[in-house]
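note to self — DONT lose this again. spent like an hour looking for the file last time. sequence + predicted structure for the chain T wanted, 447 res
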Amino acid sequence: MSRANALYKRLDNSDFTGRHAGMYSVIILGHLFDGFDINMIGFILAGVIATFALKPAQAGFLASSVFLGMAVGSLVIGFVVDRIGRKRGLILAILIYAVFSLLCALSTSYQELIWFRIFEGVGLGAEIPVMFTYLGEFMPTKYRGRMLASSVFFWQVASVVAAIVALALVPHHGWRSMFYVGVIPAVIVLFVWGFIPETVRFLVQKGRYQEAEAIVNRLSTVSDAEVSHIEDTVDVSPQKVPFSAVFKGKYGRFTSGIWIMQFTGGFVFFGLATWLPSIFLKMGFSFVHSLTYTAVITGAGALGNVVGGLISDKFGNRKTLVTFFALGGIFLMLWGTASSLAMLMTLGVLAAFFGFGGAGGVLFAYTSSLYPTSIRATGTGWAAFWQRFGGIVAPYGLGVLIGMHVSTYVFFVFLGALLLVGALAAAFLTFELTGKSLEQIDREIAM
């Protein structure tokens, strides 16, 4: 058995320990603060519009601007992280978005705010795929799906946190206060990241076995002596795979499915996160009620990530993705027919729970487990790019749609149809990963 495979088996077959929980806690802190910065725009957009006298299309572009930066960050960070390491890449990403969040708060014009928000997005977009890569390379196999998917709960529940903070700050201190708040947690995360290790799989890829073994000895409940008794061995040696591999053979098919699902899910999630408070205002609800209803619906989506991860580990990622995308699409279409507040909230909660909530967490868990170690961060980053691209297109496109005074029914049916496209991609363009080690996945796809 190779030295690398012995280390991987000890990681993959370990119990879930307190050290695993500590790493998970660090990741969810990053998700929470990252999500806060991304999703706050929907809660401050009305204030920014008033400050700079923006038209609907300009407001839509401002909401989309962060995703331009996030798209760049997602595309670039994978190449960087697959070379310098997951830990250093995350520290770099956090530094970028902390600096530009502060500059957003100090902006004196619409044009300045646009540029600062774009550069803030570079850091935000870089952080998320690296966090999934980091966590996926440490989690034991039987816990990987649920831990990765449930971590998105904290990224999405950040919208609820943003709504609560906005209710407390924006009416009294204005929209700039939200950007100031966004800087504080970034500094906390930077400090915490100084105490976590680099991933074992990255260290092995670089031939740094002594460091890797020291980490495994602290983390795993499986000893060297027990490794030889573990069945179903997939003996592998570290191999460098060119990034072009994601477009070839079976990887090409699965990559296309991921990109379709990421785009459709991202369009729906970020489109609603941006415009839902305004939609509620248009329906005649007050500012406070609009934020409250949006927070409840977003909270249901966050809970869907936890449930989706558990279901995925039991029934498989493919069935879970198909079911959640399809139900999310159906409930979104029905949402447009709601004629009472009770119906509006019930259908909104169900659409969020299955569609832009639960499906999103399972999808990122799937994405960050599919690709080989040498290109895992790059593959995950490029997949995240298509989610960001959906975020670029959605706020601006939906802003134009709202400016055309289309009915609420058409608005929700359009979004529901996009999720159904995601369900088709999940049904025909995915590979079952549940219960398999990362190296076993590599081998099966390569066959």
